[in-house]
Specification:
This is tRNA (N6-threonylcarbamoyladenosine(37)-N6)-methyltransferase TrmO. 8% of the residues lie in helices and 31% in strands. The protein is mainly beta and 226 residues long.
Length: 226
């Protein structure tokens, strides 16, 4: 398949990216089309939709030589603490036979006069910066929203931890940047096997181009430095 666009997002590395779309509305992304697809006609009518589906490649899951990883029939979902194995097709793990992802995100606006052609400004993204986009489709509430559907082992949104600031908030931070950082960390990005650890380990996430250092203490996330 062709890569039709690249997503530029507020998340500079995999660690810290929300595990589902829509959990952090402040998580922004800019979809930049590849030269061959920079035709405004290709997005004509898309402005009438509030949300879009993104189909993309999990490009960080490939081996260093560019090959796909060997197929594994089971994975350990973070939602189950990483302790229980489930079939890969019963999860949204990025480690799949074909590393393809699917996310619904909010379409904030379409910039038509950019030097790089149409640019889609998105919110609620769960994608790392540089993600290759394979396709875009409009979200249709009457067909895509099924409130009566069952959700297996993940019936509800994940719990959120309280955020505390140990360091001063940088003066150049807007209120939206503060909310982006707080709402991202509140989802507890730690690997599941470290969640119940007694060790007070320091972590770091690259958010909005800033290295945010933090730790967890008494079920609270303390931001140590920016």
């Amino acid at each position: 398949m062709d890569t039709i666009a690249t997503l530029r997002s507020c998340y500079g590395e995999k660690f810290g990216v929300p595990r589902q779309s829509g959990l952090v509305d402040e998580a922004w992304g800019k979809l930049i089309f590849e030269p061959h697809y920079r035709n405004p006609d290709a997005v004509r009518g898309l402005e009438g939709f509030s949300h879009v589906w993104l189909i993309y490649s999990f490009h960080h899951t490939f081996n260093k030589d560019g090959s796909k990883r060997e197929f594994q029939p089971t994975v350990r979902p973070p939602r189950l603490g990483g302790n229980e194995k489930l079939g890969v097709f019963a999860t949204r793990s990025p480690f799949r036979p074909n590393p393809i992802g699917l996310s619904v995100v909010r379409l904030d606006r379409i910039e038509l006069n950019s030097p790089k052609g149409p640019v889609l400004h998105l919110r609620g993204v769960d994608l790392v910066n540089g993600t290759p986009i394979l396709d875009i489709k409009p979200y249709l509430p009457y067909a895509d929203a099924l409130p009566e559907a069952s959700a297996g082992f993940a019936p509800d949104a994940p719990n959120q931890l309280e955020i505390k600031w140990e360091c001063p908030i940088p003066k150049d931070f807007s209120s939206e940047t503060i909310q982006l950082i707080e709402n991202t960390l509140a989802l507890d990005p730690r690997p599941p096997y470290q969640v119940n650890s007694a060790n007070q380990r320091e972590y770091g996430c690259l958010i909005n181009g800033r290295n945010v250092r933090w730790m967890v203490q008494d079920n609270e996330i303390w931001i140590l430095s920016i």
